[in-house]
Amino acid sequence: MPPAFSHDITLIGAPTDVGGGQPGADQGPQALRTAGLPAALEALGLQVHDGGDLSGPPNPQHLPQDGYRHLDEVIAWNRVVHDAVARSLAQDQLPILLGGDHSLAIGSISAVARHCRAVGKRLRVLWLDAHADCNSRRTSPSANLHGMPLACLRGLGPPALTQLSGQVPALEADAVRQIGVRSVDAGEVDLVHQLGLTVFDMQALHTLGMREVMTRALAGMDELTHLHVSFDVDFLDPGIAPGVATTVRDGPNLLEAQLCMRMIADSGRLGSLDVVELNPILDEHQRTADLAVTLITTLLAPQ
Asked: pTM surpassing 0.85?
């Protein structure tokens, strides 16, 4: 059986944790490689090009300024991520961004949105995450930008980030489906509603089941749809994925996570992927990295 995807795969490492509050996510790209991601993808019959790691500023460990922590560094990293993802898409490849913290999704999704406008495709984003990631500098209790990427992509945030795609907002509300959310800051709740996001939280998953949630999240796609998956590893229950800095209990279990990835693969629309927030410092004997590799291969396995 041929691979589900005709595109070559490009791995793009972004080893930084400047958008988060705890060190370690900068080691995520190497941990995924050590866990065998390139070989696992090649075993599916896919052509894999490892572009190595991007370069950007180090984490200065500064205190917040004007409601943002490490804003200049986050902007710099997102610019290089944007350009790398844009190059991959222009070469008709499927970019996999290996993070790094989730603020990097501003750069990757901005590039995907720009690409979709250029080729006349509709963009659908599945945001797999325990958190809403929709804070502003006024609502964030930490000022960490890894808690703000969706707000920035919806046009709320620093201009250097909201304008990265060349259009504000980079994402329309109806393009986004959030899945697995179970931690939302008090001031963030109103922003989620204000920005019009569709959220399938863990209560919805428990009530409807993963199959029905994914059926709804994937509905309406066709051959003109580019599907981007932004996979924060803390989407998973910490009982199976302890290697993240911001664990939240009662997330999807292994069977639910596998079903989620299989249904995405079966759609045949996946065009780009983020894998973020893996923190090897907090992992247990590489459990989380190994599981992430298993789920990524499920996403890209033959239909």
From this structure: yes
